[in-house]
């Protein structure tokens, strides 16, 4: 195992959760010359990658990359990784960490890039605090079927150490990701950034899913602005109790940048999961998390309460698994 990621020519990386975003990071890191293994729980996806490679529409160009891919319940515990990047769905995090315990060495760094809130508590049950790094990404990706993804646009990554005095390790990881074009940077306030992204997920994800539309179509409706303002205000009110100050006006503009023509045609991950693939969503870790925190802090969150309940109702109607 390597203490300093940048001291080695090739870093041994595992992507735990090889859906759309995990596949994007795996492909870009592999193209950067790194040893990358995909780990996932979707058997059809794994078989498709094993047989045909990871197929991607990469900014309009068809690309195929052959990567090692393993079922999470069958990972080889004798294999250890320098860096594990977590891209499961939030509700799958604990099971993934339990399944891959054998590949986590004493020095393995674990970078969690999940959507939503409240993941550190789960991570600490399986990973030493000094090895945990938390971040978020603004890259986009779509899952078009087993072994097939659509990758487009440009993005970035922000990350920060959870353990004390691990800032240099966090900066090393950011530099390493940037070497493969992932545009990563160190943040000294990652919780602000995570809340900021959660505002996007807490609007675009659930609203496009419930209204069966893409982001641009939602933005073109007469009520879009009013709805976004209400939801962002609820996120900001909860964050304020946790001493995280969100600028509501700036965040509303940030959310509404999703209507830009360059990304307006995108269907967010929750839409992909529920509408396209009949899979359960992460709503309990986005709007649902705000609802729970609101109840705890005595902060009213009627929009998040309703959106959470409606997404669960939609899951039942579509018999999501």
From TrEMBL:
Keywords of the record: NADP, Oxidoreductase, Pantothenate biosynthesis
InterPro entries for this protein: 6-PGluconate_DH-like_C_sf, 6PGD_dom2, ApbA, Ketopantoate_reductase, KPA_reductase, KPR_N, NAD(P)-bd_dom_sf
Keyword rRNA-binding carried by entry: no
Molecular function as annotated in GO: 2-dehydropantoate 2-reductase activity; NADP binding
GO CC list: cytoplasm
DNA damage keyword on record: no
SUPFAM superfamilies: 6-phosphogluconate dehydrogenase C-terminal domain-like, NAD(P)-binding Rossmann-fold domains
A Gene Ontology BP annotation from the UniProt entry: pantothenate biosynthetic process
Pathway per the UniProt entry: Cofactor biosynthesis; (R)-pantothenate biosynthesis; (R)-pantoate from 3-methyl-2-oxobutanoate: step 2/2
Function: Catalyzes the NADPH-dependent reduction of ketopantoate into pantoic acid.
Name of the molecule in the record: 2-dehydropantoate 2-reductase
Organism from which the protein derives: Ligilactobacillus pobuzihii
Taxonomic lineage from the root: Bacteria, Bacillati, Bacillota, Bacilli, Lactobacillales
């Amino acid at each position: 195992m390597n203490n300093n990621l940048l001291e080695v020519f090739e870093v041994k990386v595992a992507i735990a959760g090889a859906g759309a975003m995990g596949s994007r990071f795996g492909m870009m890191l592999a193209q950067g010359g790194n040893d990358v293994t995909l780990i996932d729980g979707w058997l059809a996806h794994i078989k498709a990658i094993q047989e045909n490679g990871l197929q991607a529409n990469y900014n309009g160009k068809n690309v195929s990359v052959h990567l090692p891919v393993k079922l999470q319940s069958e990972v080889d515990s004798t294999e250890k990784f320098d860096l594990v990047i977590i891209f499961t769905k939030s509700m799958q995090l604990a099971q993934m960490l339990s399944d891959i315990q054998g590949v986590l060495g004493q020095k393995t760094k674990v970078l969690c890039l999940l959507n939503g809130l409240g993941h550190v508590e789960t991570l600490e049950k399986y990973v030493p605090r000094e090895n945990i790094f938390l971040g978020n990404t603004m890259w986009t990706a779509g899952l078009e079927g087993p072994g097939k993804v659509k990758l487009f646009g440009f993005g970035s990554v922000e990350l920060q150490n959870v353990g004390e005095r691990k800032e240099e390790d966090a900066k090393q990881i950011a530099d390493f990701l940037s070497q493969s074009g992932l545009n990563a940077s160190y943040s000294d306030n990652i919780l602000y950034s995570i809340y900021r992204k959660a505002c996007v997920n807490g609007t675009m994800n659930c609203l496009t899913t419930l209204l069966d539309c893409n982001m641009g179509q939602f933005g073109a409706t007469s009520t879009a602005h009013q709805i976004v303002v209400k939801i962002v205000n609820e996120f900001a009110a909860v964050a304020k109790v946790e001493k995280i100050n969100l600028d509501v006006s700036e965040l509303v503009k940030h959310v509404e940048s999703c209507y830009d023509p360059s990304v307006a045609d995108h269907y967010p991950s929750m839409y992909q999961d529920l509408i396209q693939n009949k899979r359960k969503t992460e709503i309990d870790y986005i709007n649902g998390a705000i609802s729970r925190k609101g109840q705890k802090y005595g902060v009213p969150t009627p929009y998040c309460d309703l959106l959470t309940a409606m997404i669960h109702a939609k899951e039942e109607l579509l018999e999501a698994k």
